[in-house]
Amino acid sequence: MKKRNLKMLSLTLATACALAALAGCSKKQEETTEAPTTTAQAGTMASVTMPAPPETTASELPEGMMYSYLTGLPVTTEVGTRRPLAVMIDNEKKAMPQNGISSADVVYETPIEANEVRLEMIIQDYSELSRFGGMRSARRYHPGIAYEFDAIFFHHGHSDIALPYLEDTEHCDDIDGVTDRGYPATYEVDDHAKGHRTFSNPEKINTRIEKLGIRTEVRNDFDYKFQFAKESAPNQLPNGTAANKVTIGYKQNQPWFEYHSDDQLYYRYAYGEAHIDQENNQQVAVKNILVQYCDFELEWDKDTKNIFTTGEGTGMFITNGKAEPITWSKEEYWDNTHYYDASGQEIQLNPGKTWVCIVLPKMTGEITVE
């Protein structure tokens, strides 16, 4: 397990002014938008064997089962060795309701331009979905997030400075729905508002993945992003502060999470109501919430945000009705992000789904935990 000797901020989560300390440690890092060197092509169909996740043994699970590296929960080996999809999901009010978001293993919510925030869902087993979407475009930092999970990146358009990363075939297996490469995998629906109708389904995306010759199994040298506690010994955050309601101050959708002690999950609300997935009519609920403060700069249009997800910064880890301050670190664009507690130990998530909120320093005081 990795360990960092990072100076932690003194933090009392119960007050907004104490939360202001979180943003102070987040700092801008220099990142280039020049095209990365490419040395490999995406069309390799190598068969790989997925190693067992850390701190598990084969005897703990029945034959044919393994622990998911996305959730820490038992899954079949067929599912657990399959590369996930990272899909850009429309998050505007007119795009509601979304399809498939409640089935995602991990979701990133990130600012993009003006007050807009967009979702990037990481989903490994999407075979039972009737459709997923609506889909939207990517920004520069989204391909790097997909790579942290060895995910195939599926989106509908992109900003200009994202292009060098999308074209880096060593790291990014990219399917863009506005190009010939990805257009056959998308279609328009008639039950959503105009401009928010781009969707896909398992059959279309799998056909396109096969046509493009994209690797479909997790690579055998994959470096796990998350560490998980065992279900039999959950992480109770003994030094944490009560976290029964978590409000994230995104101006567009004003989301919040409410903790249910009966199933120990955080139920999500947005736009003033329960966040419901049209696919199954269920409210989105997750086990873990990570809040990650990141610096940014404005792109040429002075509106689109170029968020710096490399370097070091601060945040919060929220699970099982508790919250604690954390730090995060990511050395290079194509590296994993690691999260550390006050002692410098890498945190252990509890098995289940995770929602990651990328927030900006100016949002300090708009993140409340009570």
Describe the structure.
A hairpin with a 6-residue loop joins strand 20 (296-298) and strand 21 (305-307). This protein is mostly beta strands and 370 residues long. The strands form 6 sheets. Strands 3, 4, 5, 7, 8, 11, 19, 22, 23, 24 and 25 form an 11-stranded mixed β-sheet that branches. Strands 12, 13, 14, 15, 18 and 26 form a 6-stranded antiparallel β-sheet that branches. It is 9% helix and 28% strand. It is globular and about 50 Å long. The chain has helices at 16-24, 77-80, 142-147, 163-166, 202-212, and strands at residues 65-67, 74-76, 85-89, 106-111, 117-123, 132-133, 152-155, 174-176, 187-188, 198-200, 241-242, 245-247, 256-260, 265-270, 273-274, 276-277, 282-283, 285-286, 288-293, 296-298, 305-307, 311-319, 322-330, 338-340, 354-359, 368-369. The chain starts with 15 loop residues before the first helix and ends with a strand. The chain has one domain (1-28, 64-370): YerB-like (YerB-like fold), CATH 3.50.90.10.
